[in-house]
Amino acid sequence: MIPENFLWGGAISAHQCEGAYDEDGKKPATADTMLGGDLRTHWASFGNPIDEKLYYPTHRAIDFYHRYKEDITLFKEMGFNALRLSIAWSRIFPNGGLDEEEPNEKGLQFYDDLFDELLRNGIEPVVTITHYETPLALYEKYGGWTCREMISLFEKYCKVIFTRYKNKVKTWINFNEINSMMFVGCLGPAIKISRRDPDFAEVTYQAAHYMMVAGAIATKLCHEIVPGSKMGAMLGGHKIYAYSCDPKDQLLAMFENEKQYYFMDTMLNGEYPYYAKRIWKDNGLHLDITDEDLKLLKENPCDYLSFSYYQSMTVSTDDKKEQTAGNMSSAASNPYLKASEWGWQMDPTGLRIFMNELYSRYHKPLLIAENGLGAKDVLENGTVNDDYRINYLRDHVKAFKEAMDDGVELLGYLPWGCIDLISCSTGQISKRYGFIYVDLDDEGNGTLDRYKKRSFEWYKKVIASNGEDLD
Ligand code: BG6
Fold first, then answer.
1. Proportion of the chain above pLDDT 90, given as a percent
2. Is residue 50 in a domain?
3. How many domains does the chain fold into?
4. Residue nearest to atom 14 of ligand 1 (CA)
5. Has 370 been annotated as catalytic?
6. Which of 104, 283, 299, 380 has the smallest count of CB within 10 Å of its CB?
């Protein structure tokens, strides 16, 4: 049974929606340096100087900055009672707080207005403090989270937003998908480093430590400043299978699991897991970790675990196995599963298993902060017949309901990209997730008009029936 206070809604992020990348005092974030076009161009451009002659998908994105009222009206029509969104750090501190005593009032006002509009419409904002968009100034000065200095700058930013929005936002998430740095350094911690670089482990595990300490400080401040607040950690989640019952494959699956649980174990249990020392030793790491850091982690664990789930991942020690894609990872193709147009293997049963694993490991409430199907949609007669998306979502709703029947405590379901937005791994909009179609193409052409897809009516029914009517 789904409880009455369950959060039904959707999820978006600032850089993938807002646009207005240099308006009202905002300065660029790392995400604003990423070009559209093919995958390689998108990633290779990370952190490079912006060339105004080229098309950068986040610069206008879907123009949520100017159109959020229209979009919130549509969310309300679907029955949303929650929306996950993020604050762009460089709207609040355009240089990340480096040389700024005071925050940018216009940036703060934007989110005040946005949260007010949501609340007026009965929609609770669930806010990610930073979603893959470190202020560019911090990347340029420190190379992102490679430096301890980032912790106090993050603290300064958190103090401002908690104080300003303490009566409007109660449910927070510190970092989007913190474990994604194990696949690609640049997104979360804003480190430009290849996975093949011999220093990759040293740099990413160090950044992970600084981020988790900053996260602990954020939890502390949030509890002190925002009455009745909850702080969540967020996992970019996969159910991980071993390809075979060969113990070597099973061991590899255990190691891959440790890579994702490393972060959640630390942030939810308040201390590094027992296997951390082995990871550090195997990788020859010498991390800057102080007793004060460990105390902060111990005293300030997160209150709940939010996670994204799109697909499962199957790992094999045989590297000749056919591979399948993910947005940041690739793995062995699982012969029992079908893949999306982007090669992501869809696995609703995996969601049920994964939720059980998470809940038995942490005994803290879960929140599905992202889930969905990226697909090429065709707009015909003012709508999109996206039965494929409805089927995907229906199967996942059934799966989380089963997990709830298993006894898992789930706070809500916030499918990703509830309105079409810019893809974070490819910079495309042709990879669409939304219930609402946005007229925009991968080169930036289009009216930006919004259209309801068939899934819009379907989700509306699902919410109205509190998850009972899934037809
Ligand atoms: C998650 C991210 O990993 O996946 C989102 O938190 C992202 O920002 C989403 O958009 C879907 O991935 P993609 O690559 O299709 O945008």
1. 89
2. yes
3. 1
4. 425
5. yes
6. 380
